[in-house]
Amino acid sequence: MVDLRAMTALGAHEPAVLTVGPLTITERFDIALASLAVRRGQDLTGAARAAGVPLPGPAQYQARAPYSAFWVTPEMWLVEAPFASHEEIAVHLKAAFGDAASVTEQTDAWVIFDLTAPDLALVLERLCNVDFRAAPEGYATRTVIDHLGCYLVKHGAGMARVYGPRSSAQSLLHAVEVAAASAL
Amino acid sequence: MIIHHPILGPRDAQEFVYLGDAGLINRPDGMTAGIEAFHDYAYNRDNPAGEHRELWYHEQGDRSWLVVTRNTVTHEIKKVELARDVARAQGRSK
Amino acid sequence: MSQSHRIDGGQIDRSKTLRFTFDGLPYQGHPGDTLASALLANGVRLMGRSFKYHRPRGPLSSGSEEPNALVELRSGGRQEPNTRATVAELFDGLAANSQNRWPSLRFDALAINDRLNAFFAAGFYYKTFMWPKSFWEKLYEPIIRRAAGLGSVSREEDPDSYDKGFLHCDLLVIGAGPAGLMAALTAGRAGKRVILADEDFAFGGRLNAETYAVGQASGADWAAATVAELSSMPNVRLMARTTVLGAFDHGIYSAVERVSDHLAVPAVGKPRQVLWRIYSQRAILCGGATERPIAFENNDRPGIMLAGSLRAYANRWGVKAGERVAVFTNNDDGLRTAADLTAKGVEVVAVIDSRQGDEVIDTSGRLGLKSITVRDREGGTREVRVDALGVSGGWNPNVNIHSHHRSRPVWDATIAAFVPGADGPPGLLVAGSAAGVMSTHGALRTGRDAAIAALGLTGRADMPEAEDAPISITPLWHVTHGKGRAWIDQQNDVTVKDIKLAEQENFTSVEHMKRYTTLGMATDQGKTGNVIGLAIMAELTGRSIPETGTTMYRPPYTPVALGALAGRSRGKEFKPYRLTPSHHWAAEQGATFVEVGNWLRTQWVPKAGETEWRQSVDREVLATRKSVGICDVTTLGKIDIQGTDAGAFLDRVYANTFSTLPVGKCRYGLMLREDGIVFDDGTTARMGEHEYVMTTTTANAVTVFRHLEFCRQCLWPDMDVQLISTTEAWAQFSVAGPNARKLLQKVVDQDISDAAFPYMGAGNITVGGLRARLFRISFSGELAYEIAVPTRYGDALLRRLMEQGAEFDAIVYGTEALGVMRIEKGHVAGGELNGQSTALNMGLGKMVSKKKDSIGMVLSQREGLTDPNGYRLVGARPVDPKGKLTAGSHFLEIGAAPVAANDGGWLSSKVYSPHVGSDIALGYLKGGDQKIGQRMRAVNLVGGTETLVDIVSPHFVDPEGERLRG
């Protein structure tokens, strides 16, 4: 049992839940992340199936239990799982894929915000160039929000999950809050 | 500009970083080529008013390096390829 | 005050009254008014002064082409100069002021320029202020600066915010007149995603200004009904108050939406304006046409307007511009003004049709039109008392946006105007009067057809009936009778005479003419004057108008506020910040922070009683060297490199070798650019057989990653290498000093004795069961480690280290102490990694392995880069310990004159070293490795200082590396 006390990206000991008009911003501190990349000439399909790790195609997110994943670059995914059970997600994945894959711990590289609002597109159009309205559910893309490289996953017309650089969590949150106040 | 990424479809050129002439793929072998060859590789470029094959990096995207065939006068983009495929086609390996 | 010139009708809401002031005087208007229409309704014609001659001016137009009626809106931080009264939407409490006049609009001292006009011809400044040269800075420039410009800017910060945003559509329709509405309706009904943008606050374009019928309704009513239908469609976005500024590549358009300009103050949280980047599959320009005047003597008096504007004020705003009106036209459209005004009960006293041989040759009325002089076809002249004159010289299609990709418009003699050329932006069609189709029917039809063509729709949408009158125009650009000045460009005071002068002096190309005369510059960009100017130039040179051609059209279509271009990126929000894992702890201690790229790093952590930064920094250095200090080094770039070829890959990208590095060890690496210059440095550790962790400098983290991806994908595409940044994933602290091991041993779970964890060791460890990483590396010359834990535990780890370190008097040191210690140790950093220096320059030449191919290896061996007398890294110390050094000073031999030929090199980094007890510096000195022990001068000509220095080894601390290995 780890005896050091964790701090969220926003500098608190509990994740933040904030509302700006109809928009709710929920900081997700309960998701573990690791990158999974195919080593040359390897096929991960079998091991992925056995371990329950989805390997979606380009620009897609796919949810399964306990693992979900989205595509980030050819032959690489970000895999997520509940932090409570998978704090050591990289260890789990290395065990599942062995030398067939390169696995890198990414949990604390990112701050994750779930954005929910009835017409979320109105907020996102002030933040990034993603055509959120036209994007299919499960669309996953890298984009720029307030100069910050982020991943954005569409979980329905009214919800997006944004993964931003952890060190800029406050700036990212501020940008979202300001855009929501402005647009909604 | 819009660059039609071979994997991700149309993406704003703002997401990319421009490097320059796609000839940069053709790096000589340092163990066999001499200073002259490297000098040519590092410094000499054509600067065409017209069709140009050039390297763009999708830094705010999927990190793919692309070879974009673009008309430098009209900005028309004729072709976009993954640089890795181009490099392999040109015989590069390890 | 009564609205003396308000007449019946119009699209204003008379049930509500809006109060406003102009130059401090109170007036009233109604919702739907512009500032210009409201002032005209109140009988105010004089609204501004011209740029050069300070001539009294009123509005020429009723739209965004306005050259004259420029005013300052609001006050304080919201003051906005050069706002066109003709498009400023009236709101309650609006305060507007005239500009470019002193002391008042009616009496303007600089109107003397008008009397001196003979001196102020085109090219005046170029010719007059040339000699004597010494007069320029002291005399001419201040005078010109004072006289230049129109409005004044507020010196206060703009309290409002501006957003940026991104929109996507199948079809962007630019302009919501009859063509635009019909195009949007056609596409909208077909289910396409449509954006309809118009600069006006009301949709309808000229339909609101005319009395034409569309179908069974008035044009304005048809427009309103169409807008109602469009707004019911979820696939259509209606954007009023939105000006499309420019056409960019591949269907991208920029537009500015004035969200709050029609309000006194934006609502809480709402922006004043939004700058949109619109991604369109197709676009249709329905930007309408702009009427042009005719040049004749004194044609610039308040009360003289474009004929179409005169009737727009009557039809749309219920305003008569005068009690006795005349119309001067060269085409049928001008006649409509006479007809419409007569129908409104306004007295039209004369219609002067140049096609009949009649002309207006002069006017009178200093502050407003009093009379015109008419020369009839027989040559007789008569003076007609009028207080308003409508002038129509024909209509110019608004081709601007279609020409933003250098397409040159072509001359259409039937309408005597330029129409869009062939090679416009791909995907952009043009419809309505912007395409030179001047009738209402033509606008509706081409709008519909353009939408069908653009989107490949099938079937034909219904279209209402509308007038389809043919164009009848006989061009008349300027009246040749009359000796005085006849204005072409009213904003810049360019007259026919100036065009003649340009022609005499051989500035006959339109681009030269523009720059020489200033025709078409400033806020209106010559929307009303350009074509007349070039037509007159064509006349003078005996060329045709198409041969003479137009100047280049460039974005923005109308002026855009700098605030909109800046968006949210200003002040503290200029860029996002990156906070280190120790930020909260450091802030609690009252630390001073410094911006390093986007990072806010702890610069030093003051202790009670320390009043000056050097006290804190010196203490941090000495405490670290004496016992132990901790520094947050999370900001260094960290890249995880895995794969079976990871080692071979590192051998290629680093000048030195990594494939031979044992697992569990790390090594300092030097990365070159292909030209042989040092790119970056850092330590890279081998964490497993096929797993390395690379460290980059904070500044180059992004560019190194990009470079590695280039090498991986473009140079060696079959290498088995995978890359991902882990900079943010780990909180990493340097723990340095003689007691570093003792402190860490209290915190980590494993044995880290020298035997178990030797110098340059690296490995996975645990801290109270938590996975962590440890690297035994040092940049301070002390026994040192870097320990990393998942970022969320970084704050807690630091607190534990401080708690456990209390017995060692552990301190946290910031970037200043970090810099002092690395310079004391002679490690290169920012000042030395300057993008011009080689490994050899840095004294690291031996690191460049020639046994393997690596980026930069070959070109680093070039003759010029291997000069034995080239720059070498040295240390410098003042001979007198009290002597001061300045970074940037140059090394000079004793007795050598301080000239470039004697330059020996420079001091790249300088600090006060509490360890040495004096200033010390690193620097590049020619042949420096052979000059250790010599005495030289460090000369700073900028600061006027000179210090005698001893050239020494760059390693001021632990030159043999005994402490590191201890």
Description of the structure:
The complex is a heterotrimer of chains A (184), B (94) and C (966). Chain A has 184 residues and is of the alpha+beta class. Chain A folds into 2 domains: 17-29 and 109-183, Gyrase A, domain 2; 31-108, Heterotetrameric sarcosine oxidase (Alpha-Beta Plaits, 2-Layer Sandwich). Chain A has 5 helices and 11 strands. Chain A is globular. The model of chain A has no long low-confidence stretch (mean pLDDT 97). With 94 residues, chain B is α+β, with helices and mostly antiparallel strands. Chain B has one domain: 2-Layer Sandwich (Folate-binding fold). Helices cover 17% and strands 35% of the residues of chain B. Chain B is built from 2 helices and 6 strands. Chain B starts with a strand and ends in a 5-residue tail after the last helix. By secondary structure, chain C is of the alpha+beta class. Chain C has 5 domains: 160-289 and 395-471, FAD/NAD(P)-binding domain, CATH 3.50.50; 290-373 and 385-394 and 472-490 and 522-548, FAD/NAD(P)-binding domain (3-Layer(bba) Sandwich), CATH 3.50.50; 579-635 and 729-821, Gyrase A, domain 2; 637-725, Alpha-Beta Plaits, CATH 3.30.70; 867-965, Beta Barrel (Elongation Factor Tu (Ef-tu), domain 3), CATH 2.40.30. In chain C, the strands form 13 sheets. In chain C, strands 8, 9, 12, 13, 14, 15 and 27 form a 7-stranded mixed β-sheet that branches. Chain C has a 6-stranded mixed β-sheet with strand order 40-41-42-39-33-43. In chain C, β40 (762-767) and β41 form a beta hairpin. Chain C is elongated and about 110 Å long. Chain B binds chain C through residues 1-2, 12-13, 17, 19, 24-25, 27-31, 33-35, 38-39, 41-43, 55, 57, 59, 63-65, 74-77, 82-84, 86-88, 92-94, and chain C through 248-252, 279, 405, 426, 645, 648, 674-675, 702, 706, 709-710, 713-719, 852-854, 857-859, 861-862.
Would you spell out the secondary-structure blueprint of this structure?
The complex is a heterotrimer of chains A (184), B (94) and C (966).
Chain A: E1 17-20, E2 23-27, E3 31-38, H1 45-51, E4 61-63, E5 68-73, E6 76-82, H2 83-86, H3 89-97, E7 101-105, E8 110-116, H4 121-124, E9 140-145, E10 148-154, E11 159-165, H5 169-183
Antiparallel strand pairs in A: 1-2, 2-8, 3-6, 3-7, 4-5, 5-6, 8-11, 9-10, 10-11
Chain B: E1 2-5, E2 9-12, E3 17-21, H1 35-43, E4 51-57, E5 65-71, E6 77-82, H2 83-89
Antiparallel strand pairs in B: 1-2, 3-4, 4-5, 5-6
Chain C: E1 18-22, E2 25-29, H1 35-41, E3 48-49, E4 56-57, E5 70-73, E6 80-84, E7 94-98, H2 112-115, H3 124-128, H4 135-147, E8 162-174, H5 178-189, E9 194-197, E10 213-214, E11 217-218, H6 219-231, E12 236-239, E13 242-247, E14 252-257, E15 273-285, E16 289-291, E17 304-306, H7 307-317, E18 324-329, H8 332-343, E19 347-353, E20 359-364, E21 371-375, E22 381-385, E23 388-392, E24 395-397, E25 410-412, E26 417-419, E27 428-430, H9 440-455, E28 487-489, E29 494-495, H10 496-504, H11 510-517, H12 530-541, H13 545-548, H14 562-566, E30 578-579, H15 583-588, E31 592-596, E32 599-604, H16 613-626, E33 629-632, E34 637-642, H17 646-653, E35 666-672, E36 678-688, E37 691-696, H18 701-715, E38 722-725, E39 730-736, H19 740-747, E40 762-767, E41 770-775, E42 784-790, H20 794-804, E43 811-812, H21 815-825, E44 871-878, E45 890-892, E46 905-913, E47 918-926, E48 935-940, E49 945-952, H22 962-965
Parallel strand pairs in C: 1-7, 8-9, 8-15, 9-12, 15-27, 17-23, 18-19, 18-23, 30-32, 33-43
Antiparallel strand pairs in C: 1-2, 3-4, 5-6, 5-7, 10-11, 13-14, 14-15, 16-24, 20-21, 21-22, 25-26, 28-29, 31-32, 33-39, 34-37, 34-38, 35-36, 36-37, 39-42, 40-41, 41-42, 44-47, 44-49, 45-48, 46-47, 48-49
